[in-house]
Amino acid sequence: MPPKPPKTLFEDDHLLAISKPRGLLTVGSKPGQKNLLDQLKTHYQKQSIRIRPLNRLDRGTSGIVLFAKTRECFEKALIGFNSTQTQKTYIALVKGVPKRRSGSITFPLQSRQDKRKLLKAKTKYSVLDSKRIGKGALSLVEARISSGRYHQIRIHFTKIHHPLLMDRDYMERRDYKYWAQVVSFRHFFLHSAKLTFTHFITGEEITIEDTLPKEFRKTLKLFDLNSKPKKNRT
User: Fold this and answer.
1) Which of 28, 103, 112, 221 allows an S-S link to 150, with CB 3.0 to 4.6 Å?
2) Residue span of the structural domain in which 191 resides
3) How many domains is the chain partitioned into structurally?
4) What pLDDT digit, counting tens, does each position of 94-142 carry?
5) How far apart are CA 169 and CA 148, in angstroms?
6) Half-sphere exposure of 143 (CA within 13 A, CB side)
7) Phi then psi for 154, rounded to 5 degrees?
8) Which residue, 226, 223, 104, is CA-closest to 159?
9) Residues 190, 154: contact at Cβ < 8 Å?
10) Cβ neighbourhood burial of 210 (10 Å; 0-12, 13-18, 19+)
11) What tens digit of pLDDT does each residue of 20-47 get?
């Protein structure tokens, strides 16, 4: 049975936005790896269109991936996509309850290409809801970034001692084992939910949104967590 085609969130003559499911690579790094780009190539090659990804999400992250459909758009996006005018909004579940309901995390991060080099990185966040669960607690947060460093959101929340829930790479082993008894899902919860930017060709203000995937919504319902900020919180 062929894989279900990815959901298109936005498309015009220059840009294509796709909803990437969790577990799928954006671009394959080895021959034969299933990835989003290869799933889309065949369709667009028939139209003599070469699509190029403008952002990438980790295999375990779901949500919005933007592609350029023209060379002109791709070249202009290389300059504009990681500027402060572009806002990328993610929804995540993290361990514990941050002391501050909102704030900024500004730890510099290692370059993926050269680990001796530190890169500036800023993650703004807001706690949408939180819940005490047995001996622990978890929080639903909104995280906003302009540039996207490697594992930026995952590392930044780990730096403030609130790693993403069920993140094997960054949670302490004992915490992971505890939460594995509480939730059935064995992957971290991170979703690219909203992308706001100035169109690289038309200059139009564009906002693209993607709903939370099923397993994410199921977990929120299980713990009665609300993805909308509560009115009595600032």
Assistant:
1) 112
2) 7-222
3) 1
4) 999 999 999 999 999 988 777 778 889 999 999 999 999 888 999 999 9
5) 18
6) 31
7) -65, -45
8) 104
9) yes
10) buried
11) 999 999 998 787 789 999 999 888 989 9
